[in-house]
Amino acid sequence: MRARQAEPPLVLPRTEVMAGIAGYCEWFAELLRSLDEDEWTRPSRCEGWQVRDVAGHVAGLFSEVAVGRMEGQGLPEVTARQAAERRDHTPAKVAKELARAGRLCGTVLDGFTDEAWVARAPGGFPGPLRRAVLVLWYELYVHGDDVLSAVGREPDRGTGLRASVVHLAETLGLWGWGPATLVLDGVEKLDIRGGGEAVAGDARDFVLAATGRADPAVLGLDDRVNIYRSASA
């Protein structure tokens, strides 16, 4: 078994992560409000899911985190339930839920001390709270990209893209992938497991490859880079 990475390639400041989550909750909610009935039911990259299912999962995730329901978040059966519970809701209703839940999450997370921020996360998450919170930003970005792709709109290349690369780099290092050095466009160099062969190219292409949403061969990689090993939510 390969050695896990002891230190993450980059830890984003708490203030940056919190601001990013708040901004991308509003961004995602506004995206949902802009969808028409046809776009709401288009198939997405997440196997078996339409746009409305992707949106329902994200709204459900934030609504549950906001009230402290951390256990099982990210498990297939939990994401499926979140999507199913909102499948008959309108884009406006899901957007309203997400925007409200995002604000509540911000209030809850602000209540944690700096010591708790770097301590073990609640709910069985395998890592510190700061990493669990970064996952929320990543979820907003990646699933927002799923929606944009499904409805034929241009991808977002804002701060959520960089945050997603940072999260994926840490996750891959923890899984023993590498060693490698990410030198992606628009993102600072990130050494995985001490650094090694350079992985260059578009940052979004890397995010899609590392989540099973695109062919990793575009970046000269194989499917071991995929943290899910298959395209899934």
Could you list the spans in which at least 5 consecutive residues all have pLDDT below 50? none
Radius of gyration: 17 Å
Kindly name the structural category.
mainly alpha
User: What percent of the residues sit in helical stretches (DSSP H or I)?
Assistant: 40-55%
Q: Tally the beta strands.
A: 3
Distance between the termini: 27 Å
Please give the count of helices.
9
Q: What share of the residues does DSSP label as strand, in percent?
A: 5-15%
Largest sheet: 3 strands, mixed
Physical arrangement of strands within the biggest beta sheet: 2-1-3
**Mean pLDDT, rounded to whole units?**
94
Assign an overall shape.
Answer: globular
SSE string? HHHHHHHHEEEH
Summarize the SSE layout with pairings.
Blueprint: H1 14-33, H2 37-40, H3 51-66, H4 76-85, H5 91-110, H6 114-117, H7 129-150, H8 159-174, E1 180-185, E2 190-192, E3 197-202, H9 203-210
Parallel strand pairs: 1-3
Antiparallel strand pairs: 1-2
